[in-house]
Amino acid sequence: MSSPIITLLTDFGSGSGYPAQMKGVILGLCPEACIVDISHEVPPFQIQMGQVLLRDAAAAFPPGTIHVAVVDPGVGSSRRPVLVAGGERAPDQFFIGPDNGLLWPFMRQARIYELANPQLRRATVAPTFHGRDIFAPAAAHLALGVAPEQFGPAIEEPVKLSGPRVRHEGGAVVGEVVFADHFGNLVTNLDVDDLPPVDRSQVKVMVGGKTLLPLRSSYADVAVGQLVAVVGSSGYVEVAQREGSAARALGLDDPRGMPVVLEPM
C-alpha cells in the first residue's frame, strides 16, 4: 500500500519554523505520510493567491491526496476550520483549511464538514496556530482512515471568495493580474478559453492600459529582455520578460488588480 500524500500550502515563510511544527504533528500521528510542500511563500494574508497556487498544484496530484492550506488572517476568530471532500474540481482529493474562501474553488458539489471533533485535534489548541493544532492533526487522522463525517457537522453555506471576474467588451476580453510569481511573471485570471476565436498570433495584449505585447507560444519567441505574453502551463495568460522580471521592467511593486486586455490586432 502506498504512503498517503499530504501537501502543505501556507503563508508562513520557508524560513520560519511553523511548517516544520505542522509536519511534526502529522508524522507523530501518521509516520508513513509523504509530505509535499506546495509553497510556504504565499504573501501574508493573500487568500486569492493561495487559491490559485492550490488550484494549479492540486491538478497534478493523484487521487487520495490530502491538501492542507493555511492562509488565515482570521485565525482565532469565529471563522470555521473545514474539511472539503469530493468536490467537482477534484472529486478524489481532500482539502483542509479555514473557511475564509481559500478552499472555495474546490467546494462546488463537495461535502464540507466543520473540524469540530476535539478527539481529532491536539489536546491544547492555540488560538493563533490552527495550522499545527487543528489542520495538521485532521490531515493525519484522515490519512489514517477516519471518515470525513466523523470530524464534525456538515456545512451548507461555506464562505465564498471568487476571483476577479473576466468581462467582454466588444471584441476584447478584460481581466486582471492576480499575482507576480517568483520570476516576476504577471499571472492573470484570463483563461485560454477566454481568448478571442482568432489566430493567437493575431492577438495583442494590453497591460495597465498602455503596454502592447504580442501573444506568443513561449518566452523564447522574443529576444532577451523583451516583454511577451504567453499562455502559461496552467492555461492562464501571463506577462513575462524573457530572462528578466516583467514586474520590475514595468516598475510594479504590487501588480495585483492591474487590468489586462486581449483583443484581435
Can you tag this structure with a few keywords?
alpha+beta; 14 strands; 16% helix; 7-stranded mixed barrel
Account of the protein in words:
With 265 residues, the protein is of the alpha+beta class. It is built from four helices and 14 strands. The protein has helices spanning 18-29, 47-58, 130-143, 246-249; strands at 5-10, 34-39, 66-70, 81-85, 94-98, 111-114, 167-169, 172-180, 186-191, 203-207, 211-216, 227-231, 236-241, 259-264. The relative contact order is 0.13.
Helix/strand layout:
Elements lengths: L4 E6 L7 H12 L4 E6 L7 H12 L7 E5 L10 E5 L8 E5 L12 E4 L15 H14 L23 E3 L2 E9 L5 E6 L11 E5 L3 E6 L10 E5 L4 E6 L4 H4 L9 E6 L1
Parallel strand pairs: 1-2, 1-3, 3-5, 11-12
Antiparallel strand pairs: 4-5, 4-6, 7-8, 8-9, 8-14, 9-13, 10-11, 10-14, 12-13
Helix pairs in contact: 1-3
Distance between the termini: 55 Å
Strand numbers in spatial order across the main sheet: 8-9-13-12-11-10-14
For the biggest sheet, the summary is: 7 strands, mixed, barrel
Uncertain runs are none
β-strand amount = 25-35%
Write a brief caption for the model.
By secondary structure, the protein is an alpha+beta fold. Helix content is 16%, strand content 29%.
